[in-house]
Amino acid sequence: MDRRSSAFGSAYAVLLLCIAVYGFFATGYRPAQTVVTSTFVTFHPAAPGPAGSGAGALAGTYAPQTVELYQTVDFAAPVPPGQLSGFASLFDVEAVATFTNPATGDLFVTEAFYDEGADGKAMYRFRFTPTSLGTWSMATASNVAALAGLSGTVQVGAASDPALYGFLTADKGRFVAPVAGTGEPRGLVYQVFMHGGSPLENLGALPTEDAELRAALAHLLDEAAGYGFDAVFVGVWHQWFDLGNSSSDSHASVEPDPATFRVLEVLCALAHERGMFVHIWQWGDEQRRWSPLGIPADVDFPGDAGGPNGIADRRLQRYIAARLGPLTNWTLGYGFDLFEWADEDQVRSWAAYLDARMARPHLLTALEQRRSARSNFDLGETKLSLVSNAAAAESALATGAAPSAALYAAAVSALDAARGKPVAFENRYLYLRAGVWTMDEVRRSLWALSMAGGVAAVWGIDWDLQEAYSHPEQLLTYRRFWDGRSIGELVSAVHPDGSLSLLSATGDRGVVYSESTDAVVVPTLPPGTTVHAVDTLAAYEALPVNVPPPATARPSASFTWHAPYVSDWALALDPPR
């Protein structure tokens, strides 16, 4: 190595150390180097120009930037240590960015989040995901000078992938997300895959280097997609505060851990590229100290008791809203075994606090269970945006009926009670668990939940058994059949022969499903309706069904389709094109 280069490097290192020491003693700020690569494309906003200039001094340098629809970007701004005095935590700095699209009237308001530091300065990011085409303008406000009055312009063009999803939401009780090509909402299956004991239940077990982390997460997503699932399950527990430590008695942190959030945002980014989603459980049970009861009190705030919705918990919620809120493809559950530790009002307060701070609404839920008179958790009439009615599923499965039939009945009832909100059964129906969830029952239960009107559930690999699904092609057939199929406003029914139907009011759109048969009754069809059949036990293949022509222009009469052999059959009814 050149000695001059070596000497320069040593001097530069000493300079950085001096800056760090100054920052620590001046403000309590302990600079930490950020990772070399950013998860998302990063821009630098323009600083305020001279008084009266009416423009950012750097506007010509940094704006406009060009991005694609639904492409997440960051605007990064460094803050000198001298501007951070008086803050008990660097996570308590308040700064808001407002993104506006005058042509559409769209508004995207988000807070800054602290992302460690570099060169002796604290780095803050404003995260943005455009939801419409055109020119967006950014303006910031803050009581910290370096974060106030920043500006930028983003030119949003069409997405290179027209099938790319926008923000996951719900419509008439069904899971939907807009697609970039048309902007129209597309129906989603939204079934969640978990691999018991995988690193997604212990994020600290994942690699920390960027390339290795991405490879590991890609492998986990590929596993879920290989079984036909469009969402993966993540349990974070107390790793929100300290990556690698899941329980409250294994850490003393009162600040979010950016390393944990990096794992989550990389996972969401990789999932987004694949058209997939992430279902997160924020907390677990208190027995293992995975609940927020053990969040420490912040000594810088006299009177803070810690725990749920205390100083540290609210700080975490703001960080979730700022760092994850601008991402399109996640849902968040408050935790499990809530009857051990959660209060209903506390959960409503948690959801309201997050909702008020996120740039776009996300589906939030709390698992409602009723295992006995003493162990129950029920939000009552005031439900969150995603209804997690595990109690309905538990009661139905306890009747002794076949699991698929029980879940169908529970799903119909739960959707009706949810009053237009989507429903999830988060009981975790893991393959071969308790000898119940055989391949047949997993497959039939998935079809039952869709035929009921579209209820989500959690499936996957059991922690102890670690058995892979024996017939993944059946799950892939289920996914392909339902993917993009709009089922909003369709009416579900059970027929005397045990078959199920999910039909539009006019009968020109829907699905008929029948098990262990070679004869399926097709209802009366309007002229021009087309029908195709799929064997749900086999790899996907669409078999055309000949619809008898009507004697007049009136609808075709009901008829029986004779399958080539006995199986579980699904018939898709589609309107004329």
Structure notes:
The strands form five sheets. Strands 17-16-15-14-13-22-21-20-18-19 form a ten-stranded mixed β-sheet. Strands 23-24-25-28-26-27 form a six-stranded antiparallel β-sheet. A five-stranded mixed β-sheet has the order 2-9-8-4-5. The longest helix is centred in the N-terminal third of the chain and has 25 residues. With 577 residues, it is an alpha/beta fold. The N terminus is likely disordered.
Topology (elements, then pairings):
Layout (H helix, E strand, L loop, with lengths): L2 H25 L13 E3 L15 H4 L2 E4 L4 E7 L15 E7 L4 E6 L1 E6 L2 E8 L5 E9 L8 E7 L11 E3 L2 E5 L6 E3 L4 E4 L14 H17 L4 E5 L22 H16 L3 E5 L29 H13 L6 E4 L10 H14 L6 E2 L1 E4 L5 E2 L9 E3 H8 L5 H16 L4 E8 L8 H13 L4 E6 L10 H11 L8 E4 L5 E4 L6 E13 L7 E6 L7 E3 L13 E16 L3
Parallel strand pairs: 1-3, 2-9, 13-14, 13-22, 14-15, 15-16, 16-17, 18-20, 20-21, 21-22
Antiparallel strand pairs: 3-7, 4-5, 4-8, 6-7, 8-9, 10-11, 11-12, 18-19, 23-24, 24-25, 25-28, 26-27, 26-28
Largest beta-sheet characterization:
10 strands, mixed
CATH topology of the largest domain: TIM Barrel
Residue windows where pLDDT falls under 50 for at least 5 positions: 1-28, 51-61
Adjacency order of strands in the biggest sheet = 17-16-15-14-13-22-21-20-18-19
Total helical elements: 10
What structural class do you assign from the helix and strand content?
alpha/beta
Beta-strand residue fraction = 25-35%
Please tally the β strands and state the result: 28
Name of the CATH superfamily of the largest domain: Glycosidases
- Average predicted confidence as pLDDT: 90
How helical, in percent, are the residues? Answer: 10-25%
Give the termini separation: 70 Å
- Described by its quaternary structure, the protein is single chain
Q: What's the CATH architecture of the largest domain?
A: Alpha-Beta Barrel
Structural shape? globular
Number of discrete domains: 3
Q: What is the class of the largest domain in the CATH system?
A: Alpha Beta
Radius of gyration: 26 Å
